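input
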Amino acid sequence: MARSTLSRRTFLRGVLGGAAVGVGLPLLDVMSPPFARAEMAGPTRFGIWFWGNGVRREHFFPKPTQTGAVWDMPEELAPLADVRPYVSVLSGLEIKTATHPHHSGMTGILTGARYEQVGTTRDTIVTTFAQKSLDQVAADVLCTRTPFRSLEVGICQFRGTDEGTTFQHLSHNGPNNVNPSEYSPQNLFQRLFGAIPGPEKNLARRSILDGVGAQIQSLQHQVSQHDRRRLDQHLTSIREIERRLSQLAGQCKAPAMPGDFPDREGKEQIAEKNRAMSDLLAVALACDLTRSFSVMFSSAGSGVVVWQAGAVNGLHQTCHDEPSPQPIVHRAVVFTMQQLAYFLGRLRDTPEGDSNLLERCAILGTTELSEGNMHTNDEFPVLLLGRGGGKLKGGIHYRSPNRENTTNALLTVLRAAGLPLPTGFGYGPGRSDQSISELET
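output
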């Protein structure tokens, strides 16, 4: 008997409370004919995970003498210990287009180019990206057939300055042409999976899956036992996201700033929103809704108050004012890496084929400065995360011997995501035709 197949982009569709709803599916065996089984490992995804205001170098970078696979995790990287096989740390790199620290770092590490100045304000400049950000470069190649060209997620609400789109946004299509980050888990859920019940309805009582129940039952009879297990796990993940959103946000009401997690006693609920957004993004990637994404944990020059680190002032100001060795800034970086660790762990724990979602990702983890108090663009913090479907080694500390161009790292991660880029990447002094072979398989 001929083996039936489903499209990789199949959605379960139905109606809930009079509104159309749709649920994406994970990668199932039935979505590919036998001769294409090699494709079942899943597509490679490209991502950016960005945080603002740099690091404390003495606590972030491994010792220069510890390179390759043997290195001790410094304090600020220690939260990533559980996903260490998927984390490579790069040190000794430098932004070659540096002329104005925050602006140069942001555009240099996200476009391989210098910023475009569009004005001045107070005693500083106003800029935008002169070129596409990396996520959009990747989307041009990877996302021609996915439901979403790219997904942009924000965690800490923008509390920055009036210095242009370079400070406020990560994803750019070009000068002053941005893809704003979504800061509301409720809005992201609705965008990805369809309409949710109205303000008077409780998500815990009205699940979006109720609207596609008949299709779920039908599909379970069409697929193999292995596919049924994958489908059950996927649907359980969606139920858990709904439960968490309901539990944290209470009634499904119009959200107050910031997003669905309003400040409690003046404190932003950062970890809670990071967990919700990470869960949603993991499901979206598993459903192949997009293959390019960006997470702006905090913006360039972010004024987020990391109260979990003991801060009472915004992080940017704390970087300027706190005396060395800056223990609050240090604890803020540790907290940030804890949030990154949750996201990476969520990807690792999402099965795909005979592996997991993090194995299939090539992610750039970075910031816009080396250290916030010094405002420097040398010794630039760069993490390459995931294994790029086997194209990245993972678990490596690479130390540049000659202050090489950060674009070398960009070229490495873009090629690992499946972009050929045979002639290199970047513009002007930021251009490079050399990837970092020590990180490639």
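quick obs: Confidence is low (pLDDT under 50) at residues 34-40, 195-205, 247-259.
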